[in-house]
Task: structure prediction
Amino acid sequence: MFLTGTMKINNTGHLEIGGIDVLHLVKDYGSPLWVIDEQGFRDNCRSFRDAFLNYGDTMVLYASKSLCCLSICRIIDEEGLGLDVVSGGELYTALQAGFPADRIYFHGNNKSREELNMALEAGVGRIVVDNFYELELLNNLSREKGLITDILLRITPGVEAHTHEYIKTGQIDSKFGFTLTDGQAWEAVKRALQCPGLFLQGLHCHIGSQIFEPESFQHTIELMIEFMKKIKAETGYELAELDLGGGFGIYYAPGDLPPTTEKWAEVIINHVKAQAEKAGLKMPRVIIEPGRALISPAGVTLYTIGSSKEVTGIRKYIAVDGGMNDNPRPALYNARHSAIIANKAQLAADETVSVAGKCCESGDMLIWDVALPQAEAGDILAVFATGAYTYSMSSNYNRQPRPAMVLVNQGNADVIIERETYKDLIRNDRIPGRLKK
Ligand code: LLP
Result:
């Protein structure tokens, strides 16, 4: 269901999150507004951490690409998780938040020399090497600094998860990682083992996002363990870590049936155990990298409804004061989201409408065909499961300032990302002398 964590309908018939009526949030912090349910987010972190810890030496990394800002990094640290970063910017944010560098894993298919240097100087826990160029560059940088850097190799196992084309990554024809099937991955292992500046801790893979089928992970585990077995047989070297990436699906809309966290842990760990045993390997430390499953259900976007338009006999559009600027997912991936009118949460949803954003694009539609109570200008639309890949993928298209983000908990609300102003929009604009008035 879309009401998760502390979300409920209060006795005035309004949506409440973290003990606060969301209408008060809009009044105090403006619209549109990203709201994060702190307790819900922490519970999701604990649920993954504990479910996997239950099975021994495991580690859960939060994929910060889903939502990265100082406060979120702080919470992840407090909850004892590690952090997956994929750029100098995410790494910088984590370090500024005081996140312990040794629990950071650094990903990316084209890390620059500067980014790698930054990671080495910070002392990140692992660098996940994606390609031969990076392998050589990192080895040289490590040697220049007199370091031996712990790495994982990113492997492309050739598993096609059932998900949207743009968010699946494990298939052979992918820009990421060393391909398993054509000998590249094997070549990468041999070279990594010869690099004096690098220490190969293990392997990494990531097969895609919004995955519901445990079989996709099982199949991946089989391929990865088989490869680890070959590595041991041919080099005598036994890898300590197996990082299976993220991609754990969540509920967005009817029809989405994600397995429970306990189920994921059980299926994944038991399968690694069984396969490792069969292969004569000791149990590697299993690492997972959920992003969406931790933060998305804890996020709600509040919009104010404005204009509406009826196309006779076809559909009714209602427009909100945000759109693809603050949530590009529907436009990019045909992603679905659930919504209610937060101030009419107890009224019957007896009208089917489509929710439009305010960008100058026909494709700027947030939700097609959603049942809502009769909507009027000034109503507050709450769109659910928007914690992940909304702020982190937001833009200023049409020169719209980004909304604020508030963290709510037990009746308290705190701004964790300020609303952008029109002034922010021109902050980096420059006028050359010849254009000056
Ligand atoms: N680890 C790696 C190496 C990844 O590439 C990703 C996501 C994750 C972990 C976290 O995946 P999650 O658990 O959040 O599904 N913007 C798209 C999703 C792109 C995911 C990219 N990589 C969306 O809005 O659906």
Remarks:
- The chain is about 30% helix and 25% strand.
- The longest helix spans residues 214-235.
- The CA atoms of residues 153 and 203 lie 5 Å apart.
